[in-house]
């Protein structure tokens, strides 16, 4: 029974074994098993190696398609030839071919499914049922492969590997001594026939389930809204309030009133642009003008839909600390989304001028809200990417927006040293997700930073798709999977990113200009993303440059833990900010 069942599952192997010498069949079978197992057990291996394995699998599959008579014959022949051609194309010219590979796999699955469906009128009832179910499953998986090209290189590789292993095992079974003389295999038993139909049905159920998950992930991605588009273009002067409306989405606390705002600003090149943001004040505000805390949020993504004001929890998305305490103090919060998040891009991720102008012009625009009395003095807070933005805000404020009256800057776990961060990201779990945002921003904003020069060919599809997902959307799990597939073997960079124009641009965006106001620089000692060693060095350099730095390190706190509600930083940040609003002098505290 076992032998007949195996024959029933691998009719293609029987045909190939009859047409080729036994030694060749054994060699092809062993090679197919090795290739298939590598795809199955190491789907997250280096993408170049994965592409080569898929290319070899394409050739093996194509040979099988050509040697197995099917109906209609011309479509089957074209499909087999296509598999072989794409495999050879990837082997000969890896770069362009690997970008096309997911599309080809998607098309091949759909065509293969249609071929199966075209043959449902032939064979036994079981054969027709299996062909119908598997054909439908292949079509569903093909559509998914087309919609998720980065997933195709990973998930479809596993499915493809299983198929290749089955083919190789079938070849070895068919080539065993005495088997080749058995031209008419015994008919499969009833349990075997039922098992084939059940297995095909399960394959279709699995494909539909995966399609449902895919649809959920895609529909859960944040989308921009009409609010973020100016009706009559961009005002030429930065800091003009274009539009405002009450806002109560997500984690806006009941003891606060909030408005979403749209305002004019300058982009990374100094050209007129739009940005959005959030203004939040205590519901029971004091009669005196409210001091302003300008908040620069941490990384939420690079795509247009990643604005905090578009996300389910706009304040938590960028890791805002100490909100209850801020409201209790009677302060106003002005939180920019930056340009390119919500509004038209590109988003200036870790690009100082574009970030800082968004922060400063949000403060200017907030002062234009009717029935809201804001004080002139502003203290800037920022975390991670926002810490980088906060540093640049303090540097640019005197020349760009003296009317914002920035009196101090609190930079919390900032991405203060861009070159050091980019060099360190390959060592961080999932670091390629953040690297994709850096690459997307710098290649979009600086013409001299060429995407194809710096990114390995096999990672280009993955990097593009990773940069299009927000950190808070469910689909980011796909980005994490993609990042792990790269990070465990090699970085995404084809050359050292610190060489050439990319390195030059990263260095020019390191906040190192004159800062004339007090700076609180906070760092978690256990931060794996922005390491203490890098921050120690940056703090020492800024102290040597004459900045008034209060540098504080928090033991056992990581990147997000340093701004968590239970962090010792939170009450210290409030006390420090209160002192800055009161214009009390700061005593420098430098490392070492």
Name its key features.
single chain, alpha/beta, Rossmann fold, elongated, disordered N terminus
Structure description:
With 592 residues, the chain is an alpha/beta fold. 51% of the residues lie in helices and 12% in strands. A nine-stranded mixed β-sheet has the order 1-2-3-5-4-6-7-8-9, sandwiched between helices.
SSE arrangement:
Layout: H1 2-9, H2 11-19, H3 22-41, H4 47-67, H5 73-92, H6 94-118, H7 125-147, H8 149-174, H9 190-219, E1 241-246, E2 256-266, E3 272-282, E4 290-296, H10 314-317, H11 323-328, E5 332-338, H12 352-366, E6 374-383, H13 385-400, E7 406-412, H14 418-424, H15 431-445, H16 451-454, H17 460-467, H18 476-487, H19 500-508, E8 519-524, H20 532-544, E9 549-554, H21 569-581
Parallel strand pairs: 4-5, 4-6, 6-7, 7-8, 8-9
Antiparallel strand pairs: 1-2, 2-3, 3-5
In short, what is this structure?
The chain contains 21 helices and nine strands. It is an alpha/beta fold and 592 residues long. The model is unreliable at 1-11 and 43-47 (pLDDT under 50).
């Amino acid at each position: 029974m076992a032998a007949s069942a195996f024959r029933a599952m691998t009719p293609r192997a029987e045909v190939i074994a009859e047409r080729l010498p036994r030694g060749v069949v054994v060699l092809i079978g062993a090679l197919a098993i090795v290739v298939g197992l590598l795809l199955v057990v190491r789907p997250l291996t280096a993408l170049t190696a994965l592409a080569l394995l898929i290319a070899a699998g394409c050739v093996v599959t194509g040979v099988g398609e050509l040697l197995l008579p099917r109906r209609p014959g011309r479509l089957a022949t074209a499909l087999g030839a296509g598999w072989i051609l794409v495999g050879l194309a990837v082997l000969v010219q890896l770069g362009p071919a690997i970008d096309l590979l997911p599309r080809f796999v998607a098309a091949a699955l759909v065509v293969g499914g249609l071929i199966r469906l075209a043959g449902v009128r032939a064979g036994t009832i079981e054969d027709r049922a299996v062909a119908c179910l598997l054909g439908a499953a292949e079509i569903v998986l093909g559509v998914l492969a087309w919609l998720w090209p980065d997933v195709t290189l990973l998930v479809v590789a596993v499915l493809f590997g299983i198929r290749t292993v089955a083919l190789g095992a079938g070849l070895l079974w068919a080539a065993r001594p005495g088997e080749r003389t058995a031209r008419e295999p015994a008919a499969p038993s009833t349990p075997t026939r039922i098992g084939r139909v059940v297995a095909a049905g399960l394959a279709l159920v699995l494909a539909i389930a995966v399609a449902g998950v895919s649809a959920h992930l895609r529909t859960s991605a944040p989308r921009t809204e009409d609010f973020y588009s100016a009706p009559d273009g961009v005002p030429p002067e930065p800091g003009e309030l274009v539009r405002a409306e009450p806002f109560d989405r997500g984690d806006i606390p009941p003891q606060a009133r909030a408005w979403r705002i749209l305002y004019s600003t300058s982009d990374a090149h100094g050209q007129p642009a739009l940005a959005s943001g959030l203004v939040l004040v205590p519901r029971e505000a004091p009669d005196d003008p409210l001091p302003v805390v300008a908040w620069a949020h941490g990384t939420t993504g690079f795509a247009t839909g990643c604005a905090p004001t578009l996300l389910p929890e706009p304040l938590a998305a960028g890791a805002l600390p100490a909100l209850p305490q801020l409201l209790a103090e009677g302060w106003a919060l002005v939180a920019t989304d930056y340009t390119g998040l919500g509004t038209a891009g590109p988003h200036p991720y870790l690009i100082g001028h574009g970030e800082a102008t968004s922060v400063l012009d949000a403060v200017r625009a907030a002062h234009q809200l009717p029935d809201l009395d804001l004080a002139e003095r502003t203290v800037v807070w920022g975390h991670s990417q926002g810490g980088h933005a906060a540093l640049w805000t303090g540097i640019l404020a005197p020349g760009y927006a003296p009317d914002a009256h920035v009196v101090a800057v609190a930079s919390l776990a900032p991405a203060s040293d861009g070159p050091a961060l980019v060099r360190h990201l390959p060592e961080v779990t999932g670091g390629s997700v953040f690297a994709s945002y850096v690459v997307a921003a710098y290649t979009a904003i600086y013409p001299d930073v060429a995407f194809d020069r710096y990114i390995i060919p096999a990672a280009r599809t993955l990097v593009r798709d990773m940069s299009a997902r927000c950190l808070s959307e469910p689909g980011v799990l796909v980005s994490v999977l993609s990042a792990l597939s790269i990070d465990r073997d090699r970085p995404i960079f084809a050359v050292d990113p610190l060489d050439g124009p990319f390195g030059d641009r990263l260095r020019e965006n390191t906040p190192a200009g004159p800062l004339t106001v007090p700076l609180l620089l906070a760092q978690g000692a256990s931060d794996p993303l922005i390491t203490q060693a890098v921050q120690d060095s940056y703090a020492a350099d800024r102290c040597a440059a004459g900045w008034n730095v209060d540098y504080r390190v928090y033991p056992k706190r990581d990147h997000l833990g340093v701004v968590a509600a239970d962090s010792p930083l939170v009450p210290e940040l409030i006390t420090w900010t209160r002192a800055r609003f009161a214009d009390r002098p700061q005593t420098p505290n430098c490392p070492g």
